[in-house]
Amino acid sequence: MGNDKAKGLGKQVEGKAKEVAGVASGDRKLEAEGKGQETVGKVKDEIKKSEKENENRRS
User: Fold this and answer.
1) pLDDT tens profile 1-59
2) Are 11 and 37 a contacting pair, CB within 8 Å?
């Protein structure tokens, strides 16, 4: 797993934890922040995946 992939996954995990904590505590702001952070991680993963696919096509 590449460093960028790990960062994206880390954001997803951290975001999910915040989301769950927000739901459990009734903190809607924390829940929303977690969902947003999780989405950022997914987007980073997809960008990296696309970059690698483009790089492989050029080779």
Assistant:
1) 567 777 888 899 999 999 999 999 999 999 999 999 999 999 999 999 999 998 888 87
2) yes
> Which H or E element spans position 42?
helix 28-58
* Residue 26 Rama label (left phi>0; alpha psi -120 to 50; beta): left
Exposed/middle/buried for residue 2 (C-beta within 10 Å: 0-12, 13-18, 19+): exposed
List of residues 6+ apart from 30 with CB closer than 8 A: 18, 19, 21, 22
Nearest to 12 by CA among 40, 51, 48, 46: 40
